[in-house]
Amino acid sequence: MEINQANGTRSASITRKTNETDIQLTFSVDGTGVSELETDVPFLNHMLDLFTKHGQFDLKVQARGDIEIDDHHTVEDIGICLGQTLREALGDKKGIKRYASVFVPMDEALAQVVIDISNRPHFEYRAEYPSAQVGSFTTELVHEFLWKLALEARITLHVIVHYGQNTHHMIEAVFKALGRALDEATSIDPRVTGVPSTKGVL
């Protein structure tokens, strides 16, 4: 994994190649909302684009996987890579706000994402979608992506979809809220000396 924290830019790159997927991913916490996404899962491309734009990150993903089986391995491994680069890019986490709670509406849908950059991976997910599919995308893969992201980034992540009628809108609200919450939690607070923890380390 390559890490770049020079000039205050928190970013990391990773290459992950298995018998199921081949992924190159670069993530910058301090970005401008630019995404370059080339995967075999169009709906995930759309969600990652929203996440990047609303979080003001920079994200580049090139991913190929065994989608002739299904999208599971590709979605899961991109979540793993994004989580690992996020963790590495944040380094010692000095000065970050650490916590965030964000509500995002998408028409009739309302999602909430709560984050603690805690170095204690935990994931809670409360979402019931009207449809098991959005196009060719299986909605249960949202859980798989978010869980692997939280696990590999070593963050506490709570995702709640309070209500909605359109599955696309509900998932879109989740990814927008994820971007905005992560942007807030990773932002630097000039009042913070060291890390925001009485333990002295995160």
UniProtKB/TrEMBL annotation:
Catalytic activity, as annotated: D-erythro-1-(imidazol-4-yl)glycerol 3-phosphate = 3-(imidazol-4-yl)-2-oxopropyl phosphate + H2O
This enzyme's EC code(s): 4.2.1.19
Subcellular location: Cytoplasm
Pathway: Amino-acid biosynthesis; L-histidine biosynthesis; L-histidine from 5-phospho-alpha-D-ribose 1-diphosphate: step 6/9
Gene3D superfamilies: Imidazole glycerol phosphate dehydratase, domain 1
Keywords: Amino-acid biosynthesis, Cytoplasm, Histidine biosynthesis, Lyase
Top enzyme class: lyase
Annotated NCBIfam families: PRK00951.2-1, PRK00951.2-4, PRK00951.2-5, PRK00951.2-6
Protein name: Imidazoleglycerol-phosphate dehydratase
Organism: Paenibacillus cookii
